[in-house]
Amino acid sequence: MSNDGVDTGRRMLLIGATAAVGAVGVVGAAVPFVRSWNPSAEAKAAGAPVEVDISQVQPGQRIVVKWRGKPVWILHRTPDQLSTLKKLDSRLRDPNCDDPQQPSYAKNEWRSIKPEYLVMVGICTHLGCSPMYVPEQGKVEASWLGGFFCPCHGSKYDLAGRVYSGMPAPKNMEVPPYSYTSPSVVLIGVDKEHPA
């Protein structure tokens, strides 16, 4: 075959144009694919820390906020509620909260940074039900001093989220990472003492 009469300049132009259009197509297909690896704004927000103003939470009152798709309870405990905690040690599975999964500030009788404020994930450690807040003494049983009762399978927790012995729940309720940004603002999801 002879290349006589073939415009090589035109051929090179067509080859170059075809290659350029192909490259644009590859980039056009690759950008959405690579972008799909990044988490969405909704996914980023779901894992983001949550700031909660607790200045209006009255003693004895519990509020619920959402963090990472879980209910987080903030309970403003009264002095009477705090006084019941030590009385229950002999009836609890893990009164000192020795579970290594818990933050260091959950390893005290209050399971909190400030004794009066309990910050805890409101999910039973048995099968994931949400226990009820039952602060009234004697309400669940005669010796009940107040706490959390799971209606699904009967697990009982004290007002620090520590599980009673002999319950279906295997461990104390989870204390999430949290810290205070001011005396009345809790930041759930950030542990300033042990940053990740």
Question: Helical stretch count?
Answer: 3
- The first-to-last residue Cα distance is 70 Å
What string, H for helix and E for strand, traces the elements in order?
Answer: HHEEEHEEEEEE
Structural class: alpha+beta
CATH superfamily of the largest domain: Rieske [2Fe-2S] iron-sulphur domain
Largest sheet: 3 strands, antiparallel
**Spans with pLDDT under 50 lasting ≥5 residues?**
none
CATH architecture of the largest domain: 3-layer Sandwich
Tell me what you see in this structure.
This protein is an alpha+beta fold. The mean pLDDT is about 85. It is built from three helices and nine strands; from the N terminus they run ααβββαββββββ. The protein is elongated. The chain has two domains: about 40 residues; about 140 residues, Rieske Iron-sulfur Protein (3-layer Sandwich), CATH 2.102.10.10. Helices cover about 20% and strands about 20% of the residues. Strands 1-9-8 form a three-stranded antiparallel sheet, with no helix packed on it. It has a three-stranded antiparallel sheet with strand order 2-3-4, with no helix packed on it. It has a three-stranded antiparallel sheet with strand order 5-6-7, with no helix packed on it. A hairpin with a 2-residue loop joins strand 2 and strand 3.
